[in-house]
Amino acid sequence: MSQLFSRRELQVIAGYARGDTGPQIAVRLGLSPSTIKTINDRAATRVRDTGKPAVRHPVLVDYAYRTGQLEGLKPEERGPIRLTRRQQQCLDGYAEGLTAEQQAAALGVTKNTVHTLRVRLLRQLGAKTAAHAVALAWQYHLLADQGTLPRPACPTCGRR
Question: 18 or 144: which carries more pLDDT confidence?
């Protein structure tokens, strides 16, 4: 059975899913940045992720969507999104929590190439952060493996 996040953990993860930074989430929730870090650490422990925050946040967003805990988060309005094969691979890497170095090794390219692909991916999605990109990918059914949970229809194309 999937480990459920607490209400407060979900509020923080939803902030990342919307592209907010930790300090922005702290202000919005009326918490200190150190409290946000503690909440992140606790949530990451639930999914057994010990990576750096830049890698951790997309993993937490992916896990929350995969387990159905962010289904109520209203999809952001976007036009049709088409990704190249490499952009798709970068997006999947974000969701898996791969670092740029790990992804470069997996794809057989340089770390700089991965960085360029990621920047272009974020720009094309209109995402502010990697966690925001993963959230948009869930909302618009762009991840290669979105699990077996039933999904609401995509607001643009109607796909489930």
Answer: 18
